[in-house]
Structure formats: C-alpha cells, structure tokens
Automatic annotation (TrEMBL):
GO molecular function: transmembrane transporter activity
Assigned GO CC terms: plasma membrane
Matching Gene3D superfamilies: Amino acid/polyamine transporter I
Short name of one Pfam family: AA_permease_2
Membrane-spanning parts: 28-55, 61-80, 147-165, 177-195, 215-232, 253-275, 295-328, 357-379, 385-407, 419-438, 458-478
Protein name: APC family permease
Source domain of life: Bacteria
Region Disordered: start-end pairs: 1-20
Organism: Antrihabitans stalagmiti
PANTHER family referenced in this protein's UniProt entry, alphabetically: AMINO ACID TRANSPORTER-RELATED, MEMBRANE PROTEIN
Membrane topology summary: Multi-pass membrane protein
Keywords: Cell membrane, Membrane, Transmembrane, Transmembrane helix
Amino acid sequence: MATNPIEAGASLGAPPTRTGKGLRGNTVGLLAAVTLGLSSVAPAYSLAVSLGFVVMVVGDLAPAALLLGFVPILLTAFAFRELNREMPDCGTTFVWTTRAFGPLPGWLSGGWVPQIATLIAMTALSRVGATYLLDLVGLDSLATNDIAVLVTAMLILAAVTTVAYRGLQLAASVQYVLVGIQFVALLGFGIAAFARDGASAPSLSWLNPFAMGGFGPFAEAVLLCLFIYWGWDALITVNEETEDSDRIPGKAAVISTLVLLGSYLFTAFAALSFAGTGTDGLGLGNADNAADVLAALGTPVLGSALATVVQVAICVSAVSALLTCMIASPRTTLSMSSHGALPKAFTKIHPVYGTPAFGTLFYGIFATALLALLTLLSGNFLGDAILSIGLLIALYYGVTGFACVWYFRNQLRGSMRDLLLKGVLPATGGVLMLAAFARSAHDMLDPAYGVTSFHGVGGVFLLGIGSIVVGAVVMVIVRTRFRSFFRDGRTAVITSTQIEA
C-alpha cells in the first residue's frame, strides 16, 4: 500500500521505478506537479512584496503590467514544454541549452544562473518566513531584530533541508494544504476588498498597456512581474519522477502559469479598487506600503482577526517555496554531475528516500552561509540582491526560448503547430526576455536604482551582472577539472539522455 499521497495518486498508472540517476520514477501525478509549480512561486509572498513596487512604476496600470509580464512567461512555458517532451531530464535548462548551444552556454546560463537566482531567493524566503513566524507567535519585538531573524531563518532552513533530505516533500497533502491556504487567503482578501464601502469599480483601462509612459517604465514593470511569476519551472526538475514524464510536466507548467495569472489579476484589481494608487495612507503608491502590500491592507480590508490569516498565508507561502527550492536545485546539480559537469558527489542518492542526499545538504548549508553573509554585510545589500534576481531570470528564460528554436530548427517546416510552438512563440518569448534584461541592466547602472552603490554604479547592477561574471570565472576554473564535459558536453548529454530513456 502506498503511504505517500503522491505515490497513491500515481499508482493508478505505472508503478514506482528507479530512474537512471537513482530517483524514484512514476511517483508524481499532474495535480502534484501543478502544486509544486504553484508552491515554488510563493504566490502570496510574491504578490505582497511586488505589487506595490509595480504600482509605483506604472500606477493603476499594474494589471496591464501583470498581463504583459505574463506573456513572455507563457511563451517560455511553451518552450519548456516542447523541450521537456524531447528531453525529460531533471537538469532541464542545463541539458536543453547544452544540447542546443554546447557546454559553455549550458553550464553558465542553464546551470549557474538559475542556481544562483534560486540561492538568493532562498535567503529572502527564509527571512520572510522567519519574520512572519516571530510576529505570529507574539515575538514581534524580535521580528525587527536582525540577529533574531537570522537565527530563526537558519532554523527554518535546517528544517526544510531535513524534510527535503528525508523525501517527505513528496507528501502531496502537505503542499496541497500550504498552497490551498495561500489561494483561499488571496480569494478572501479580494472578495472583501471589492465589498468594502468606498471601493471603486474596476476599470478595463487598467489593462491598457499602451497607456504606459514609455519603454523604460514598461521594462521595469515587466521585470518586476517576472519575479512574481518566477519559480513555476521548478516542477520540471521532478520530470524524471513524474508519470508520463515527456507530457505531464509541460502540461503542468502551462496550467500553473495560467492559475497564477488569474489569481494575480483578481487580487491586483481588488487592491486597486479598495486602496487606489495614492502616495500616502493606504494608497498602493505609498512607498511605506510597497514592501508588503497585503500586510498594509490586511486589517483595513479584513479586520484584525482575519488579517492574521493573510499573515499566515505569506509565512506559509515563503516556507512552502523554500521547501520546493530545496527539492529542485539538488536535482539540477544531480543532472549536471551525472553528465560530468560537477563533482560526482552530487550524484549520491539516498538509498531509502531516493533523494539527492549530498546535493540537498550542500544547498542547505550553502544557503545558510549566504544568508548569514548578506545579512551581516547589510540589510540593504540583501534587498538589492533580491532585486537583482530579475536580471538572472530574464537571462536564462530568454536563452531557453532560443534554445528551443535552435534545437527544433529542422522541424519548424513540418507543421503549423511545430512552427508556432517550437519556433515563433519561444523565439518571441526569448526576444522579450532578453530585451527586458538589456533595458533593465542599463537602468540598474544608475546608483539611485536600489539602495546600495559602488563608485557610482548601482549595487543591483553589480550584484546581477557580477554574479554572471563570477559564474563565467568559476566556469573557467571548473573547465580544467571537467575537461571531458567541456570538450564533448553536447555528445555526452545526448548519450546520457538516450541511455536513460
């Protein structure tokens, strides 16, 4: 009898098996895959900390920005779906980019960049979870103490690392509850906001992208929205453990992004209708509210008792996403290692739990060390590190879109479906992503962008572009140790994926 809810749901199909990398295959169904995609985005947290900043950039056109930000995400999701159908490997972008462009772009943009973005996000998620947890248990005085927050965040990281290591992350019922709390809270908040006296009627003009004041605000708003949607691709990293691995993960990716779009637009319309875009009081344009819009509006909209539910949702959102990050990242390094691009230690699978044992512990320790370093350097430094994630997201999503086009280039004339889903749509998504990357990198050069700067250059730019440069340097170093991969990487990946298939 299957004791794991995901296994129980998947047992109607093929029985659990061991994949070529030692993972437990046929244990994740469609609903569980969608749940992983939604949990990794941390919808309640992402919307709470981003909506205010989007409003400060484009005012009541925030829903238009959410819609526009969704377009390249959806187009990229099609690229992920088509590539996963061809190459269902837990290394995802690493394997796909290597197959399309070779080992150097594969290692840097498909491996290093998403992993660094995830590690930075994990530091933010652990801090958010710690802050809200301290506040919820009545220790609100400690929630503003950096050391207390740091210690609590480290304990949360230790807890999710233990859960991920033991394989309990596959207990779907837990993630169902965590995701359910978030969407119930967002739905309840939205309904109450629309029902409040004084709430204005929503307007379709809020969806008009042509009313934005130039390309600069447009690009900045879209980049902010990329952070709101980012994370759904974590569900693809469990593709080797998913039933019908060449079909279900891609389908789940599209479903999860559509669910996110609907929930985000509903909540944004509700918040704008209730609070407006004013720069004082409860207005969404008030910089004092931007760091956590849902917390600022929670009590006025729901009352003090029910506002606690929103706080619980944000806390749960951060911890749930953190857990999914701890699931996804070790699987990427497992794939990189199995293809000869990282030390063999990352291929170690726990004999009982079927999880990447070494990789999970490595990420738990590394994320904890990075959290401590960024916190001790400066709270502002950590904030700018989080802002820099948008650059990294745009880069590896954009490259993945082009990898899809290039890999399938000889099939594009086969049918209209192939032309659209393997060519036109992924290429358009890639262009939009890299355009947002280039424009935002230019804007981030300004020392006034973010909080920190160094010799007249914005700290967000230095952190974003700097992490890519550091990755290139690291790649040069590791290239000397893993000569076989960097010499024959594309061939090695092809051979490995064919053997596993």
